[in-house]
Design goal:
Structural class: alpha/beta
Bound molecules: 1-O-phosphono-alpha-D-glucopyranose
Order of helices and strands: EEEHEHHHEHHEEHEEEEHHEEHH
Distance between the termini: 52 Å
CATH class of the largest domain: Alpha Beta
Number of domains: 2
Radius of gyration: 20 Å
Number of helices: 11
Strand order of the largest sheet: 8-11-9-10-12
């Protein structure tokens, strides 16, 4: 498995119930972080890593995601006619011309492992990436998937992104045990989905970026419902590990859990403060708001 990845899978069939009522009509992947919908950040990261085929695993309620990546002729014509060239470029740059989007339906919400399996006919027999758009990862240098693709290419192993979490949070993540790390990488020796702190093999958590061998598909076909009654990607990886190397990678960057309200707020603050044109005004606005509310900067 030493080819550069070209295909990226985005499981986006979730209902986003945590963000109701906003997600009653707008999929959570379309919620904006400053000036782009959440999904665009993951898509940009995949394209930066060299992917040219984006596979969205979706459901019948997620028309907005497909519409977003489709060409909007009428809108483009209107913008062109009214001379709004900057806005026209924004709409046209959503996907570069060499990238194609493919939509696959997950008819039943049977779990992340099942969602990934739904992409099998499009992925075929080559290593591929999985990106969970809820995990938004800000990075100053190369994006996380690009960092991981380099390692997968060099080593031929599957690679999963990991980060240390507080012990009381192991129940929210896949948790890995590894051999000793060399630099940022260590071979995975065990992986468990959402263990309680007293049974967790470590506090090294899986975050939503994976580069996987296509061998995982046969294993996912055989994977039965696990934690939460769902077919877990973690269990497929656990089976893969028995015969194939899987590397845990401590990525460079900051992750925001945009599956929670606070994570979404935190990401918005970070991206606003780092924004090319908005950062100065955003900082001023934050300082003024804190002072108006009588909240001191340094408590
Ligand atoms: C999924 C995976 C879990 C992983 C997490 C990362 O869980 O099942 O192993 O740690 O994503 O965000 P979810 O957050 O979808 O429940």
């Amino acid at each position: 498995m030493s080819k550069r990845i070209r295909k990226a899978v985005f499981p986006v069939a979730g209902l986003g119930t945590r963000f109701l009522p906003a997600t009653k009509t707008v999929p959570k992947e379309m919620l904006p972080i400053v000036d782009k919908p959440l999904i665009q950040y993951a898509v940009d990261e995949a394209i930066e890593a060299g992917c040219d085929t984006l596979i969205f695993v979706t459901n019948r309620y997620k028309h907005a995601v497909a519409d977003y990546f489709d060409k909007a002729y009428e809108l483009e014509q209107k913008l062109e006619k009214s001379g709004k060239h900057e806005q026209l470029a924004l709409v046209r740059e959503i996907l570069p011309p060499h990238v194609r989007a493919v939509f696959v339906t997950q008819a039943e919400a049977l779990g992340l492992g099942h969602a990934v399996l739904c992409a099998r006919p499009v992925v075929g027999d080559e290593p591929f990436a999985v990106l969970l758009p809820d995990d938004l990862i800000w990075s100053r240098g190369a994006g996380v998937l690009s960092q991981m693709a380099d390692i997968a290419e060099q080593t031929g192993a599957s690679v999963i992104a990991t980060e240390d979490v507080p012990a009381e949070q192991t129940g929210s993540y896949g948790i890995v045990a590894t051999e000793a790390f060399s630099g940022r990488s260590g071979r995975v020796t065990a992986i468990v989905e959402k263990p309680s702190p007293d049974t967790a093999p470590s506090t090294l958590a899986v975050v939503g970026r994976y580069i996987l061998s296509p061998k995982i598909f046969d294993l996912l076909e055989k994977t039965r419902a696990g934690t939460g009654g769902e077919i877990q990607l973690t269990d497929g990886i656990s089976a893969l590990m028995e015969n194939d190397p899987v590397t845990a990678y401590r990525f460079q960057g900051s992750r925001f859990d945009c599956g929670t309200h606070l994570g979404l707020i935190e990401a918005t603050i970070r991206y606003a403060l780092d924004h090319e044109t908005l950062s100065v005004a955003a900082r001023e606005l934050m300082v003024n708001t804190l002072s108006e509310l009588g909240i001191r900067e340094d408590p």
